[in-house]
Amino acid sequence: MTSEPQRSPLPAERRAHLLAALERDGVVRVADLTADLGVTPVTVRRDITQLEHEGLLTRVHGGAVPAGEGAGGSAVPASAPGDPDEVIASVGVLVPSLDYYWPGVVRGMQAEARRHGLRIVLRGSSYTADDERPALQRFLETDRVSGLILAPRTDGTRAQDVTAWLERSGVPHVLVEREAALAPYRDVLESVVSDHALGALMAVHHLAGLGHRRVGLVLSRDSPTSRKVAAGWRAACAELGLSSEEHFERFAPDRHTPEFPTVVDEVIGTARSSGTTGLLVHSDPEASAIVQRAIDRGLSVPGDLSVVSYDDEVAGLLSPALTAVRPPRDAVGHAAVDLLAKRLADPGRPVHRMAISPQLVVRESTGPVRAS
């Protein structure tokens, strides 16, 4: 006589069991609930997330504690690295650089991955990479990842090829600090970005609030962020009624090239000849070079020229400390992993596109327009 297959508990039964165990023991572990209920860790984590949304418990690494507790209350012992009950999947992360800007994003990803029981497999690409598909393919074939988070080129000749490959792969994916759509119907891909246009708009309005009516823009030529910063700057100029004669826009070459100092001098010369008293500069190294060269040429910062940097990686360490727009790097990393985890748990959910607002940090490099 064959025995009947054991019935999987219904969601309500699982959650009732979880809450009863939490009331009894004061703490529950994903590993223990997986064994007790005969379900996967993903299912248990989904139940914990739902109960947390209902205010019935607090999710912590490895399990849950009563509502209102967490870092300062009971703690679930962290599992050892490689514990199969805790690390439930790997996520491939491909970013264009492992220095400047991206470390902050990656730190946010790693923290959020631990919360979801995911392992990050990190690789660096290049802003000049013509085709990122081989690197992405290695994630699938060698690392056996369950999902991808990536910042691909969106302006190269292969950009649409990468987007199409992502869709054909069938692997859940989230773009970070990038947006893309599939031809021919422009179906969008899931993404998390900083609202760089808003950041630029905030910077220009800050300068205008200090009385600056002529606000210039200097952009890093090779950065994909420049396009959105420029859009926000133009929108702010239009809102403030600045005409095309009252502001200027310059692209700075790579700061390691011989022509970079010449462009810096040209920017300062144009500012002086046009009566421009405020500059928005992307990014910190370019802003620092402009400020130092302006001082060398006898200008006062912010007396003669107020400067806002875009990125805030090192702006606060310089002298004078630079007012800067700070993109939400950490929050972008957290959100990208959270979106992917939700996609893994529910492949049929609608596509989400998230834009996170930056912050304006006011320091010494901006001030009121000097009276003539």
Topology, pairings included?
Elements: H1 11-25, E1 28-29, H2 30-37, H3 41-53, E2 57-60, E3 63-66, E4 89-95, H4 102-116, E5 118-124, H5 133-141, E6 147-150, H6 159-169, E7 173-176, E8 181-182, E9 187-188, E10 191-194, H7 196-209, E11 215-220, H8 226-240, E12 249-252, H9 260-274, E13 278-282, H10 284-296, E14 306-310, E15 323-326, H11 329-345, E16 353-356, E17 359-361
Record keyword descriptors for this entry.
Rossmann fold, Arc Repressor Mutant, subunit A, alpha/beta, 17 strands, elongated, 372 residues, six-stranded parallel beta sheet, six-stranded mixed beta sheet
Polypeptide structure, described:
This protein is of the alpha/beta class. The protein has three domains: 11-66, Orthogonal Bundle (Arc Repressor Mutant, subunit A), CATH 1.10.10.10; 89-194 and 329-356, Response regulator (Rossmann fold), CATH 3.40.50.2300; 196-328, Response regulator (Rossmann fold, 3-Layer(aba) Sandwich). 39% of the residues lie in helices and 19% in strands. It is built from eleven helices and 17 strands. The protein has helices at 11-25, 30-37, 41-53, 102-116, 133-141, 159-169, 196-209, 226-240, 260-274, 284-296, 329-345; strands at residues 28-29, 57-60, 63-66, 89-95, 118-124, 147-150, 173-176, 181-182, 187-188, 191-194, 215-220, 249-252, 278-282, 306-310, 323-326, 353-356, 359-361. It has a six-stranded parallel sheet, with helices on both faces. Helix 8 links the parallel strand 11 and strand 12. Helix 4 runs parallel beside helix 11. The longest helix is centred in the last third of the chain and has 17 residues, at 329-345.
